[in-house]
Amino acid sequence: MDSLITAAARALAAGDPLGALNRVALRDDAPALALRGIAMAQLGELARAKVLLRSAARAFGPKEAVARARCVVAEAEIALVSRDLGWPAKALDAARTILEQRGDRVNAAHARNLEVRRLLLIGRLDDAERMFADVDPALLPPASRVAHELTGAGIAIRRLQTQPAKAALSRAREAAREADIPALTAEVESASLVMETPVARLISDGEERFLLLEEVEELLASEALVVDACRHAVRKAGMAVSLSTRPVLFALARALGEAWPGDVSRSTLIARAFGAKHADESHRARLRVEIGRLRRELQALADVHATKQGFALTPHRAGDIVVLAPPAEERHGAVLALLADGEAWSSSSLAVALGASPRTVQRALESLAASAKVQSFGRGRARRWMTPPVPVFPTVLLLPGPLPAD
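The structure corresponding to this sequence follows.
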């Protein structure tokens, strides 16, 4: 490797993409193409970076398997940043295997970290956690440790484990200072904001107040029966009943939870659950059926009993009943939660992350676009959707993933 390539590589490692380009911008050999691609990626020119990295991978000979694997890893990172979840994950796994076999531990760890971040993005927390545990951060240079610790913090945050999240963010901040790369320091500070931003509303006794992530964790560990409108579940002290696929039952549970310790009239429950303005006998009959179903679902946690006016919810053991709701109620909150990261998403990638059909996501995007909450650019397969971060929007509690009690 010649001196210009070495100098350019050192500039990239120090977070100086312009310095790297000054040394290799006019060169078309394989190492220079790879370095140019990484530099363009650091400058945000992702499309150009992808072209350069693919050219570099083709230019490296069959005996340069490590160099080609590094190009694949770099392209995978670009795909992750550009939210291209359709990028072949098997290619990254194969590249990581080559790097591990050839002794390139740093880039192999970086590849594994990218795999973990992708799993985290699509809500596969258990798989992400297992793969994350296989990386020894002591073997990583400071810049790579920042990425590793931020990923660990992301897993802990999604698990609602605030103390491990704070510890990981502290280690990331220290590694960023050691790396002395301003962009990494800014990324750590941006990630830390979630710990200081309200992520939910607590509704109890007719009053509302905002909760931080740490307060949400404390609430879910308490003896209170929580009707969780962020995850559409009812839970208490480690037990959880998911109603995410039963919207009528959850609407009834939420109405009863908001009214506790009082009851809710039949007409109000019919309006909340069925959207009917005027109740007739068929609505009342359906309400009785749905209340029976809700009673069976919640039999381990609470009882739903009839009153003179309607129905009331009573926990089996002593404790309050509260409702945990998003800070801002949105019809398509899960879509906005993903778009709130400020990146440009394709509708197909949103569908993968949410576990929904592409058409369902497309309808949600069209509805949000009509109300000017999202915007798109490009056409066909190149079309992307994005929105500026929404203030105090619950990006953590609405993202896909298992319940903390699972």
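The first strand starts at residue 200 and ends at 204.
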